[in-house]
Amino acid sequence: MTFLDMLRAAEQQNGSMLCVGLDPEPTRFPAHLKGDANKIYDFCARIVDATADLAIAFKPQIAYFAAHRAEGQLERLMEHMRRVAPQVPIILDAKRGDIGSTAEQYAKEAFDRYGADAVTLSPFMGFDSVMPYLKYEGKGAFLLCRTSNPGGDDLQNQRLASVDGQPLLYEHVARLAQGPWNLNGQLGLVVGATYPAEIERVRALAPTLPLLIPGVGAQGGDAVATVRAGWKPGAPIVVNSSRAILYASSGDDFQEAARREALRTRDLLQAARG
Ligand SMILES: O=C(O)c1cc(=O)[nH]c(=O)n1[C@@H]1O[C@H](COP(=O)(O)O)[C@@H](O)[C@H]1O
Fold first, then answer.
1. Most buried of 11, 27, 104, 216, CB within 10 angstroms?
2. Is the CB of residue 60 below 6 angstroms from any atom belonging to ligand 1?
3. From the CB of 61, is ligand 1 less than 6 Å away?
4. 218 lines ligand 1 (CB under 6 A)
5. Which residue has its alpha carbon closest to ligand 1 atom 9?
6. Catalytic positions (predicted)?
7. Which residues on adjacent β-strands are paired with residue 58?
8. Which residues contact 255 (CB under 8 A, 6 or more apart)?
C-alpha cells in the first residue's frame, strides 16, 4: 500500500482531514504529569487513545522528544500508535534536508528506526537531498513549500528571474514536486493554513499531491478557507492542529478536552467541503 493509499483509506474510515500533532511540552502537561519529561510517552499515548478514530494522520514533532532525550519514548509511542490506530498513517515531522549520504541516514532514522509512513523535508538543498527518501517504497515525503510562519516570506516569496515565467520560489517548489521530482508518486507539499490564497495557488500547480496544512488552532489559520482552497476529491489534505488539541485543558480531563477539540475541528473541516 502506498502512503497516498493509506491517507485515502484513513480519510474514509475516520471521515477526517484532521492531523493530530504530537508536540509534547512537559511544562504544559496537566498537574499530575506537569514538568516530568519521563511522562512524554504517557501524555502522548493518552492523546492518541482519545483521537484514534478522528484523525487522518498523527504527526509527532521529533524536536519535542529529542530536546528531552526522549527518543526512546518516541519509539514506544510509534509502537502504541500502530497498535491502537493501525489505520492512521504517521508523519514524522523532522524537516530534514542534507547532502545525499547524510540524507540516507536521516531516511533510515525516519523509516527504519521509527517506522514512520512519511517525513517532512526541507527542499532547500535540492533533489539529491530528497532522493534517498524516495528509495523507501510506499513511504511519503512532504516538502516545505509555503510555510505557516511570517518569515516564510523571506525566501519562499522571492521571484526566480532565471526560471520560465519567473515564478515565486514556493511556486517553483510546487511545480517540481508535482512534476520531475515526483519519481514514484511519493511527494506531498507543506502549505500553511495561515495563507489560504497560497494554498489555492499550490493546489492549482500541484493538483494531485497530498497537502500537509499546519496552522489551524494555535496559529489562528482559517479552517474553512483552508478546505475551500485546498480540498479536491482524490487529493487529500492533512490539516494539522497540535497545541489547541494537546492543551485544550490543563486539568485531569485533558483527554476528554482533547477529544472534544479534535471532534470540533474534524467536523468543521468536513462541513467546509460543502
Ligand atoms: O511541517 C510542519 O508540520 C509545519 C510546517 C509549517 O509551515 N508550520 C508549522 O507550524 N509546522 C508544524 O506544525 C505544528 C503546528 O503546531 P500548532 O501551531 O501547535 O498547531 C508544529 O509541529 C510545527 O512545527
1. 216
2. no
3. yes
4. yes
5. 214
6. 95
7. 20, 90
8. 46, 47, 49, 50
Take atom 22 of ligand 1 and give the residue whose Cα is closest: 61
Are the CB atoms for 62 and 74 separated by under 8 Å?
yes
Output the pLDDT for position 274. 80
The CA distance from 63 to 114, in Å, is 14
Residue 207, Cβ density class (10 Å: 0-12 exposed, 13-18 middle, ≥19 buried): exposed
- How far apart are the C-alpha atoms of 265 and 259, rounded to whole Å? 10
Nearest to 91 by CA among 76, 104, 78, 73: 78
pLDDT at 234: 85
| CATH-assigned architecture of domain 3-271 | Alpha-Beta Barrel (3.20)
Work out the angle at residue 109's Cα, subtended by the Cα atoms of residues 112 and 103, and round it to the nearest 5 degrees: 120
Residue 16 alpha carbon to ligand 1 centre in Å: 19
Mean pLDDT, consecutive 10-residue stretches, the chain (274 aa), reads 96 98 98 97 98 98 98 98 98 98 98 98 98 98 98 98 97 98 98 98 98 98 97 94 98 97 98 92
Q: Catalytic site residue 95? A: yes
Q: Which amino acid, residue 109?
A: E
DSSP secondary-structure letter at 95? E
pLDDT of residue 93: 99
Residue 219 near ligand 1, beta carbon < 6 Å: yes
Angle subtended at Cα 91 by Cα 89 and Cα 96, rounded to the nearest 5 degrees: 155
DSSP-assigned letters across all residues of 132-161: HHHTSTT-EEEEEEE-SSGGGHHHHT-B-T
Q: Which residue has the cell 521509527?
A: 114
51 vs 46: CA distance, rounded Å: 9
**Number of other CB atoms surrounding residue 269 within 10 Å:** 23
- As a whole number of Å, the end-to-end CA separation of the chain is 29
